């Protein structure tokens, strides 16, 4: 199974970052290559949505069900799509001097090797750019804040 994992310390609260990531309906306006989102259902602790990722003629569509821990994390699991397995997690850990550590991990395996060859690099590119997209959106929504130094929780 392939995976993508990235983590960054930001000068925004865990709640602020959680709210951005949980607002899936806004993704097409700022998440690279996310061309459409269809919200299927939403409660305070669960969300089901279909995302369409596009780059040129390449399109990848899949549906996930997310379980949320408000202000702390989001766990994603595959409902439908071209994957044998897909699961992901967002974690938002408060830091002692303010801000939070935002971590994204995506584990996936395509349903067959041909799909993996066709879309594997594309999915890694999208997933790898997501954390930065949310950091950029935080600056637009909450205002620019100075970068925080590396610190321990």
Summary of the model, kept short:
With about 150 residues, this protein is of the alpha+beta class. The chain contains 2 helices and 7 strands, in the order βαββββββα.
Notes on the protein architecture:
With 153 residues, this protein is of the alpha+beta class. It has a single domain, classed as START domain (Alpha-D-Glucose-1,6-Bisphosphate, Chain A, domain 4). It contains two helices and seven strands. The chain has helices spanning 14-22, 113-142; strands at 2-10, 34-42, 46-55, 58-69, 73-80, 83-94, 100-110. A seven-stranded antiparallel sheet has the order 1-7-6-5-4-3-2, with helices on one face. A hairpin with a 2-residue loop joins strand 3 and strand 4 (58-69). Helix 1 crosses helix 2.
Write the SSE topology.
Elements: E1 2-10, H1 14-22, E2 34-42, E3 46-55, E4 58-69, E5 73-80, E6 83-94, E7 100-110, H2 113-142
Antiparallel strand pairs: 1-7, 2-3, 3-4, 4-5, 5-6, 6-7
Helix pairs in contact: 1-2
Strand order of the largest sheet: 1-7-6-5-4-3-2
Which architecture name does CATH use? 2-Layer Sandwich
| Computed Rg | 15 Å
Tally of separate domains: 1
Main sheet record: 7 strands, antiparallel
Helix count from the secondary structure assignment: 2
Number of strands: 7
Large-scale geometry? globular
Low-confidence stretches: none
Strand content: over 45%
Q: Output the CATH homologous superfamily.
A: START domain
What is the CATH class? Alpha Beta
């Amino acid at each position: 199974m392939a995976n993508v994992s990235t983590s960054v310390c930001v000068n925004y609260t865990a709640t602020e970052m959680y709210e951005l990531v949980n607002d899936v309906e806004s993704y097409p306006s700022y998440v690279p290559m996310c061309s459409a989102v269809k919200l299927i259902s939403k409660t305070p602790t669960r969300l089901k949505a279909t995302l369409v990722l596009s780059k040129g003629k390449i399109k990848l569509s899949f549906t996930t069900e997310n379980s949320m821990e408000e202000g702390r994390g989001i766990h994603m699991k595959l409902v439908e799509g071209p994957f044998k397995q897909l699961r992901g997690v967002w974690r938002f850990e408060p830091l002692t001097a303010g801000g939070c550590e935002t971590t994204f991990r995506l584990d996936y395996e395509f349903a067959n090797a041909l799909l993996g060859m066709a879309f594997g690099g594309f999915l890694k590119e999208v997933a790898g750019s997501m954390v930065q997209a949310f950091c950029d959106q935080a600056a637009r929504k909450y205002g620019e804040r100075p970068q925080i130094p590396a610190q321990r929780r």
